[in-house]
Amino acid sequence: MRTLKGIPVTRGLVIGRAAIIEAPELSRVAKRRISPSDVEHELERLEAALEKSVEELNELHAEAQVELGTEAAKIFLFHIGALRDRSLLDPMRKAIAEEHVAAEYATAKTFGDLARAFGQRPDTTFRSKVSDLNDLADRVLRHLGASKLADHSHLAEDTVVIAPDLTPSQTAAFDRSKIVAFVTDLGGPTSHTAIVARALDLPAVVACNTATAEVDEGQTVIVDGQRGLVILDPDEDTIARYERERERSDAYRVSLNELADLPAVTADGVDIDLMANIEFPMEAAAIGHMGGQGVGLYRTEFLFLTSDTEPTEEVHYQAYAECVKNLDGMPLTIRTVDLGADKYTQRRKDIPERNPFLGLRSIRYCLQDLDMFRTQLRAILRASALGPMRVMFPLVTSITEFRQAKMLLHDAMEDLDDKGLAYDKDIKVGVMIEVPSAALMAPTFAREVDFFSIGTNDLVQYTLAVDRTNERVAHMYNPAHPAVLKLIRTVVRAADKRGIPVSCCGEAAAEPDIAPLLIGLGLRTLSLTAQGIPPLKRLIRSLDIEHCERIAAKAMRFDSDSEAAAYVRDQIQRLVPDAFDGRSVDLPEST
Ligand code: PEP
Ligand code: MG
């Protein structure tokens, strides 16, 4: 029995069998055997992956010709040629058909053998092609990996996915009847992959560093999503203890759900509105049962991330209409698509940006792809006729961006007027405050926008220059940093001065040590993953505003951010001794 440690993402304890989603590194691809009856299917998978790779390379070649010139673009011609070369393809097909190995292994082995042979040739022309071959193998493996994840037919029930990293769309496509948890080598707690795990209530541990190297295919593992532990080959005692813990934690959840009908009101009588963040329309149906009062953030980009094709106006409209129906009169805040950074579409992932978090993402992307943006805005407006709805734009950095986006919304309104289609003419239009520039300019924004929604996931990352998806700097990601708190205070003050609503919809709103700070800074609306609403409601009912204000004021005065965080945690623990209940369990730290 061994224990690996990572960053906890979603509470929950499960036991299952590991399925390793291979890293696209030739030497690390497991030799998965297939049955003779699967040969044909496996050959089809290989052909599909090869075809997709050639399609991509053709696109890249065309783009490179324009951007880099004919000579530089030739590299892609070599890649395309290699993928049509029978001396490369035949061994792959043969390995599948005769040795009965999976397409991933056949690909990795064939490319690996060729790369090794090239590397040993004295001629530098051959040696220089080794990295091309590795690149090419990566591409084909990626297409196989994606299809393997999309096709869960080979997975058993109670599967724990172990992967180097996962994209939000891979996680969103998980078959929940089979996959009970996942563990990744890389990633951070507020990455979108982690957020999707929370939305799906799927126990997960990220940043485990060596999980793919240390876990064997089929091995029994316990995933403790509360403490970030992965226990390999647990002994009987540990399994028994785990079962008891699970019962306790289930009972705890049930006791929390009993709070659903009680108001989220502080001990001294101040109402806090609790809203839900959603990624999929079906999630909206459960919000009322969890004690939520509506949707504070609908991440509409998941319409793109869960499909290979761009959503049409009708697809957008149907999704929003489903949310409205599921919410049964409760309000819906739709965020326009926030693509880019760690949420990329299939179409864009092969044109990597050097700094995607500082690149063409969110509202910037929408303002460059006007057709796509207009399509979404029309759908939002049409759906606004069906129930209470607000719209907000992500990652706005300047008032000009907001004005442009709002102008496009007005254009869309005129379109609908011309067609005689109904919509809410008074729809409220807000911005997300996710970057320091917007926070500092909040008084200016407050004159023109109808509401603010503070996105601490990004605000923390951009204020502290800490990539939210990077496990190496995860320890520096601190929402209680005085610099972050001061920015939040600026935004709340600007909103209060103009009398416009302000809420927080970052993951921090669900944290027992951060939510009281947010309340202390003046926030009265918090939006979080629906599963987090019951425990937060319980915490709020034991807090009082004066304490929260005192803690927030003092936290902002610390020089050191780690001392600020420690102080806040300590204070909350004193005030509400069970605030962190349900977070720690009685399982071995390491063995
Ligand atoms: C945020 O940045 O806090 C936010 C809610 O947006 P997302 O997590 O989708 O980037
Ligand atoms: Mg964000």
What can you see in these coordinates?
47% of the residues lie in helices and 13% in strands. The protein has 591 residues and is an alpha/beta fold. The strands form two sheets. Strands 1-8-7-3-4-5-6-2 form an eight-stranded mixed beta sheet. An eight-stranded parallel beta sheet has the order 15-14-13-12-11-10-9-16. α7 (168-172) links the parallel β4 and β5 (179-184). The radius of gyration is 25 Å and the shape is globular. The chain starts with a strand and ends in a 16-residue tail after the last helix.
In this structure, how is the largest beta sheet organized? Answer: 8 strands, mixed
**Bound compounds:** phosphoenolpyruvate, magnesium ion
Q: How many helical stretches?
A: 23
Low-confidence stretches: 584-591
What helical percentage do the residues reach? 40-55%
The 3D shape can be described as globular
How many strands in all? 16
Measured between the Cα atoms of the first and last residue, the distance is: 7 Å
User: What's the arrangement of strands in the largest beta sheet?
Assistant: 1-8-7-3-4-5-6-2
Structural class: alpha/beta
Percent of residues in beta strands: 5-15%
